[in-house]
Specification:
The protein is mainly α. It has helices at about 1-30, 35-55, 65-85, 90-120, 125-170. The protein contains 5 helices and no strands.
């Protein structure tokens, strides 16, 4: 049974990952932003799975959906942030500031609602629901932090390096 769960865990996450990576790369279409978004969506999942392993939590029926569902929830907010950035004029820093103004609060409020919903599972009498509630809540908090801080920081760093490379290439 445990092997079947683990295989299901891997296959559902692989399908979700392929779809989300493709969507993020197609939507971003800006140097540095696509890879930053992908990394910012994967890191919270890797961190939560690491914490689960460190805590001795095994893949169970209750948590087998966590990575795939969590990836979708985190990617949704990332897409809103990217779309808000793309409405800007092309200056990465100014576009990020505009995205914070336009999408920042809606992203935070969405995550608070999801936290309330998944956090309510912690009060369940079914251990699998409690586990899912704890780790999905942690994943949502980490995903929010990565969406609002990590992805924009990488977009600035990687966008700046690609702008420098383009300037150097145009000088030659």
């Amino acid at each position: 049974m445990e092997r079947v769960l683990f295989e299901s865990f891997l296959s559902t996450f692989a399908y979700a990952l392929i779809g989300v990576v493709a969507a993020l790369m197609l939507i971003a279409r800006r140097a540095g932003l696509g890879p930053a978004a992908v990394l910012g969506n994967l890191m919270p999942i890797v961190m939560v799975l690491g914490i689960m392993g460190w805590a001795g939590e095994r893949i169970s029926v209750g948590v087998v959906i966590l990575p795939a569902v969590g990836l979708g929830l985190i990617a949704d907010d990332t897409i809103h942030f990217i779309m808000a950035m793309k409405r800007g004029g092309g200056n990465v820093r100014a576009d990020i500031e505009g995205a914070y103004r336009q999408a920042g609060w809606p992203i935070v409020l969405t995550q608070l609602i999801l936290l309330a919903a998944f956090g309510s599972l912690i009060a369940s009498h079914f251990a699998a629901n409690v586990t899912l509630g704890i780790f999905m809540s942690l994943l949502l908090v980490l995903g929010l932090a990565f969406d609002l801080f990590f992805v924009p920081a990488l977009a600035v760093l990687w966008g700046r390096s690609s702008e420098r490379k383009a300037a150097v290439d145009s000088d030659h």
